[in-house]
Amino acid sequence: MAILGNIIKGVIHATDMVSLQFDASKDQQSVLMDLLRTAQDTKFGKKYDFKGLLESDTIEKDFRAKVPFFDYDQITKNWWHWVQAGEENVTWPDSPDYFALSSGTTGKTSKRIPVTDAMVKSIRKAGIQQVLALRNFNLPADFFEKEILMLGSSTDLDENNEALEGEISGISASNIPFWFQGYYKPGKEIAQIDDWDRRVKRIAEKAPEWDIGALSGIPSWMELMLQKVIAHHKLNHIHDIWPNLQVYTSGGVAFGPYEKSFNALLGKPVTVIDTYLASEGFIAFQQRPDTDAMKLITNNGIYFEFVPFKPEYINTDGSLKQNSPSLTLAEVELDQDYVLVISTVAGAWRYLIGDTIEFTDIERAEIKITGRTKFFLNTVGSQLSVAKLDDAVQHLEKQFDVEIPEYTLCAKRIGKDFYHCWYLGTESETDDNELARVLDAFLKNANKNYKVARSKALEGVKVKTVSPNVFHEWSGKNKKKGGQVKMERVMGEERFSEWETFVKST
């Protein structure tokens, strides 16, 4: 009998910390007031008169009117360069304990995003909320006695100006509470290995010693790790070595494109739970099993705003025009793409995180990530979000009975005409021309703007298939394997030219 598991499960079911009965808008108002109150004496707080805002009867409206939007480059140029140099009380009291390094899916130079002690506590609290939400998934008591393999970046953080820096997954793993360390795998020693391939090799070697009940990590790197474990031990599937694996907590990117290839590595179905942990904070997690949407964490140090994702509000580099309207949680609507803007306990203010989302349930504050502001494919008016591109790839998987865990594309000028040039990652033998035909037909049917574009300036679709490993090697060459690194889904022509040169060299 799983005595400890029953105790833990009982505690989870007894708590009301995670409840469907909540007022997200009131939560958000309280969060904004706490943020302003805490930061009122910082340089940023004085510049934008946070003390005056706190006396306002229309605090959310006045906050929007006084404080401009910032993306990473803007806030770094105007404010965070002082924080990064070690200065205190710039956009948040004192100085941050950590910096999250993030190249994300754009650019080769890492961003250095402040991570304060308050943000570390916020991420930890969000993690506890997510654990408590497991009561909604009807998992057996013995699940709560199994180990959890968290596949992130290295916890061997570098010191810089009396702060430590690394990817957010490494920072989070280095701050795991003591009571969780007995469940946490791969453990401190292996987690500190910086080289991805060497770390995965050690995981494969130690795998038989662990009783893994849950996995957590970005799908592309999780798949690669599972493949290595299976190959190392000559298994049929991962359940041969971890028979009690029941849950996979995904994050970083949409799980949909990876679903088929991920499931091919399993011996039986597992519960997949989506999370939204960014370098700037823990944004949302899936709270219940009857949806794949995620609940915004509205009471935990992050204030959210939502800008309608319309061409007139977006600059060509993906940043926001300063006169763009933003909405509070009380003002949003269903079936509308929004640019996500956050203010946080790490001193980010009206910060463009780079993601677009839509609401699936406003009362529950549940969302889905629909894409990236910089990955929105709008050349010649096709207006395709990453969510639509993901849907198209999943359609190909079903239509041709293949696995396509990775892809990228570019609206590329060939001669006088534009083509959508796709690279699909698959090991299956396929007809590229037939893939292009079905892909084109699906997008015409799914998106009216794409259909119009295809009748005008968008001449056609071209497809090339390559091994998924090419995508992993590209990420390793340009950034670093593992961790928070994600593949670019949409590239500009210059970047795409680099990609095509790389593909030819492999």
UniProtKB/TrEMBL annotation:
It comes from Croceitalea dokdonensis DOKDO 023. GO terms for cellular component: cytoplasm. GO terms for molecular function: acid-amino acid ligase activity. It comes from the Bacteria. This is Putative auxin-regulated protein. It holds the Pfam family GH3_M. Residues 297-362 form the GH3 middle domain. The lineage of its organism: Bacteria, Pseudomonadati, Bacteroidota, Flavobacteriia, Flavobacteriales. Residues 388-493 form the GH3 C-terminal domain.
